[in-house]
Specification:
The chain is an alpha+beta fold. It has a domain of 42 residues. It is 14% helix and 24% strand. It is built from 1 helix and 3 strands; from the N terminus they run ββαβ. β1 and β2 form a beta hairpin. The protein is globular and about 50 Å long. It starts with 35 loop residues before the first strand and ends with a strand.
Amino acid sequence: MSEITGAMLPWQWAEEPSESKHGDGVSRPRPGSRTREYRVMVYPRNARPVTWITQAESKRHAIRYAAARWPGAEAEVV
């Protein structure tokens, strides 16, 4: 059998440490809080921009939630 290098088998994947934080009040509003819908443009490092539609209490909270989900990315409400 020949040696295959540089390829990953279907059941293998690279374990990358996740720096994102998730939970009520961190990456999404707390249950029962008054929210409205915001469109957030997220610009992750070394990746294409993402348009994320989320519920948040204010623009400041929407940007905070995006920063928790995509650490190190730039975010703006559009």
